[in-house]
Amino acid sequence: MIYLISPDKKQYKANLHSHSTMSDGYRTPNELKEMYKSEGYSILAITDHERPMQHQYLSDDDFIMITGYEGYVRTTADASYDVYSKEIHLNFFARDPMNEKLICFNPSYSRYLIRDNVLDKTERVGSEKRREYCREYINEYIRTARENGYLVAYNHPYWSMEDEADILSYEGIFSVEMCNYGSYLSSGLEYNGALYDKILRSGKKMFCHAADDNHNAYPIDHVRSDSFGAFTMIIPEKFTYESVINAMEKGEMYSSMGPVFYEISVDGDRIHIECSDVSCIIVYTGSKVPCFLRAKEGDHICSADFKIDEKASYLRISIQDERGRWADTRGFFFEEMFGEQIEN
Length: 344
Ligand SMILES: [Zn+2]
Ligand SMILES: [Zn+2]
Description:
This protein has 9 helices and 21 strands. By secondary structure, it is an alpha+beta fold. It has 2 domains: about 5-255, Metal-dependent hydrolases (TIM Barrel), CATH 3.20.20.140; about 260-344, Sandwich (Immunoglobulin-like), CATH 2.60.40.
């Protein structure tokens, strides 16, 4: 029997995508840390636009700040923002908490470094040729980030107007945003369960996570508040920066908009799931017909047992509560779980 999520390991709540006054957010880094800590979070990544910046002075025994930033490539010739044009946004998470390297500097993307007059203090790495929205350039951009100590995550595919063919052509992305709450709030469409299934069905091994992407233009109690709507539960061996990054890189995490998993175990061809009260529990396997259990209207369920189809190519477990909020594990592929035991 193996655990995909162990009941004995502590889960830490994380927001892996947020913006502060260092770019276009409305709260200072200190305010963001305090508001997330008081809401029960243990981990926060402030990922300001094209502004690599460490905030380790805010880490304490119960709270870890992840260093990183959000980089992007636009289709417009002058890199201007156009709501009708595609673009790609990536979050870079630093393995070394003090890494503040800016990848592939382009002046038209660095407005906040220029605004605050800190460009000449910023370490620049990689090609500084004009950014071009094409697969070759984007893969070079990702590769440069990885070579300089960053994990690269893929942000808000719906908002970016990219499709699965675009995403499948990128190499070196470790995880995709299953839900980006800022974009979900405005569109209702930035829950990416169907897209993630297509990625897994193609055989691409990519994890999933969820985040607020909060800018906090509205107060917390406002209906347009973009905080506390989507998060990642990270399951590190120890509560240290290094251990949290390692857990992310190994996929020891799951995405959620509310519900939580307590246990997922696999024993032979059986899977057992325990979770908070939800309306349905679904196990996707790469087939047309997932395993599922649904509660009657007004009722709830908190566990399920299924027989795994012998032809299943992966396992991915999703739960949804009565408010429509999802939680999702990553895809678990059989060779990784069982070696040769189950033939596909
Ligand atoms: Zn973005
Ligand atoms: Zn963002």
